[in-house]
Amino acid sequence: MKKYISILYVLLASFSIAPVLAGDETPPPPVTVAPAAVAPIATTPVPAIPAVTAAPAIPPARPAAAPVSTCAEWKSNVNIDMESLNKLQKNVAGDKPDTGMLYTKKQFVVLLGKNWAKAKEVLASTSFKAKLPRTSEGKVDLRDVTLDGFNLAGLNFDNVDFKGSELNGADLSDSSLRGASLAKVELEGANLNNANLSFAYLYKSKFKNASLCHATLTSADLDGADLRGAYVKDAKFDTAKNIPPVIYLNSTSIFQFGLPVPPEN
């Protein structure tokens, strides 16, 4: 009896595991693994790159201007004789100019000595200048007058006749004397820096120790002119007539280095 019971247990056990071994039992559903949540990656916005602007064109450098040599400082060693000028003014106060004229010659001399601004106005105006005393050649008449030490800087003396006059120590810097006659005029120690003496007639004029730095003497006539001791640094003598030989012989020293014109040998 016990034998049959053991056999029965063995058979029951075999039937209980058979389906599993045979694969009849429905397999368990597959396990689905949810993907892990991934935190979004923070991104920093990239700034926009500005458009490249072409650099402005650089203009070519201008060539450096040639240095202008300076003139030595000039100081007058002649003073105006105010006593004589005041006396002249008193004597001519009642004179009447010729018809159509503004002044007599002596009255205009007083104006030059006492009222530079008014004199400049008169000489700068063609209509006023036409009403000044004239020579037979049609030039403004300032012959045989004394203008020693006068301030005549920047005035327009074009076509003025100074024949025989005295302008020692006068300041004629930056003045215009184009076509003027300075025959036998005394200009000792005068300042003619930057003055324009083109076509001027300088017959036997005396420029001893005068300063003509940067003066223009183009086509001027220097027949017999005395330039001893004059300063003519960078002066222009283009096509000038009767230039004293001493100018040519010492051109480097007097034009370039500004040394005074030496005396004639």
Walk me through what this model shows:
Residues 17-24 have low confidence and may be disordered. The radius of gyration is 54 Å and the shape is globular. Helix 2 (82-92) packs across helix 3 (105-114). 25% of the residues lie in helices and 2% in strands. With 265 residues, it is mainly α. The protein contains seven helices and two strands. Among the domains are: 81-133, no CATH class; 136-265, Pectate Lyase C-like (3 Solenoid).
Main sheet characteristics: 2 strands, parallel
How large is the share of residues in beta strands? under 5%
- Rounded to an integer in angstroms, the radius of gyration calculated over CA atoms is 54 Å
End-to-end distance = 178 Å
What is the mean pLDDT?
Answer: 83
The tally of strands reads 2
Global morphology? globular
Q: Assign the CATH topology of the domain at 136-265.
A: Pectate Lyase C-like
Catalogue the unreliable spans. 17-24
CATH class of the domain at 136-265: Mainly Beta
Order of helices and strands: HHHHHEEHH
Helix-and-strand structural type: mainly alpha
Spatial strand order of the main sheet: 1-2
Number of helices: 7
By CATH, the architecture of the domain at 136-265 is named 3 Solenoid
Range of helix content:
10-25%
CATH superfamily of the domain at 136-265: E3 ubiquitin-protein ligase SopA
How do you describe this structure in short?
This protein is mainly alpha-helical.
Question: Which structural traits does this protein have?
Answer:
265 residues; Pectate Lyase C-like; globular; two-stranded parallel ribbon; 7 helices; mainly alpha; 2 strands
